[in-house]
Amino acid sequence: MTGRKSQLQYIEQSYSQSGNQILVLYGRRDNQARELVQEFCQNKKFFYYYAPEVSAKAQKARMGREIAEHYKISLSDQNYDTYFKRVKSGDASKLVLVVEEFQHILKKDLEFLNSVIKLKNKKLYPGPVLILLCSSDIPWIEQELPQILGKAEKKIAGILKLEELRFGDVAVSFPDYDLSQKVEVYGVLGGVPEYFHHWDPRGDCRHNICMEILSPQGYFHNKAETLIRSQLRELTVYDTILEAMASGKRKLNELYQETGFSRAKISVYLKNLMAFDVVEKVSSFETGGWENAQKGLYQIKDTFINFWFKFVYPHLSDLYQISPEQFYDQYIAAEMQDYLNRYFVKVCMEYLEDLNNAQKLPLEIHKMGTWVGKKGNIDIIAQNSVRENLICLCNWSHPEMTFEMCQKLFASMEQAKVSANFYYLFSARGFEEKLVKMVSEEKRILLVDMNQAI
Questions:
Q1: Cβ contacts of 141 within 8 Å, gap of 6 or more
Q2: In this predicted structure, what is the pLDDT of residue 1?
Q3: Strand order of the sheet with strand 377-383?
Q4: Which of 387, 383, 195, 226 is nearest to 303 (CA)?
Q5: Sheet of 21-26: strands edge to edge?
Q6: What residues does 392 pair with on adjacent strands?
Q7: Which residue among 107, 242, 298, 325 is buried most deeply as judged by most CB within 10 Å?
Q8: pLDDT at 192
Q9: Residues in the chain with pLDDT values less than 50
């Protein structure tokens, strides 16, 4: 599977250990959790159970029925202790027990947890077993499960969250695209692997947006609101906040003025959106110029939801009145490149991480981030353990990176009260000749043409 090699290796390592283990695997449904488990279970003895949202009694009956059918046995009692005594690999190999959406059981029946712990402690099925508890309920896993587990949390060998894929994995999925096209896909779909199947690599970005997002028959046409509705109530409030954020209202007070909702109400709804990885709080890299940094900023984290509320949601009337091509040309084309700046910075950050892992940077990165100032920004600050800095400027939308853009960077650095030991200047459009000459003999400054780097 694209981009899941490290997670697959992590599960395989747990499987190869002696004794019994419990792993919790969670993440949104589109992030390949089920496919990852299926690939892991190939050529292994396993029992898989999907837990639907039913009553505790119905859940027990369903699992018992499926175990009886799978192992061709009869069960005298309907309880999890009995069930886990009867699952088996049939030989000396380790059994894999998979329970998908296990929160639907545990929310209603703590007996399930007690039986899982007994199984882990070899008090039920004696043979070696790896227990995979899978869930797509991110807030429940992160906020409620630790309280439910209590001391039993020590019995969990690992909790693995399936995040979105990195840009490099997106790039691999579209080998015939150039850098510009790959960044466009990344800036529209993000790193959700399921989405890639619905993007035609034979067409350009405009074609795919028109066919799959703007067209009523497209896979993504109502995807953003469907995602929000599937997890959260009061869609009208969330949509109002998200539209305001996509329009550039990023502070609590700005959202209050734009929406008319109380600050307390907005705070609650932002907290809910952050719990589902839809929104994130933006924190500037800590520097000496803290008083010049913007604070209390929020932004839409989910890439596709950000695209939808930025370009499509504000113009729904025209979406249903004019052709997708007309809509794209009228509402998306002019702002698309500026919109992609944010995602190009993420691409450059990932490139730095890869260089750092390969020990190909002039300093070893200890932490990295951006600085958002009141009078300017610094795209990337990478710092080592002794606070030496690598400062980066990223150019996506301008025809070329210029000396003037570097001057603005230096001004922002003064505001941030930060100095640089090294500079990396990333551009997807080339460099001004004046800038090339200026840095030709400056060893601390490196020009990186991302078309050649990636």
A1: 24, 26, 103, 135, 159, 161
A2: 64
A3: 367-372, 377-383, 389-395, 422-427, 445-449
A4: 195
A5: 45-50, 95-100, 129-135, 21-26, 158-161
A6: 380, 424
A7: 242
A8: 94
A9: none
pLDDT number for residue 422? 98
* Two tokens, residue 124: 């039920």
Amino acid letter, residue 165: L
Q: How many angstroms separate the CA atoms of 402 and 250, rounded?
A: 29
Contact by Cβ (8 Å): 183, 343: yes
Identify which of 352, 130, 326, 93 has the alpha carbon closest to the alpha carbon of residue 210: 326
pLDDT computed for residue 441 by the predictor: 85
How confident is the model at residue 305, as a pLDDT? 97
Residue pointed to by tokens 């992590």: 10
φ and ψ at 422, to 5 degrees?
Answer: -145, 155
| Residue 3, pLDDT score | 81
Q: Quick check: 376 and 422 in contact, CB under 8 A? A: no
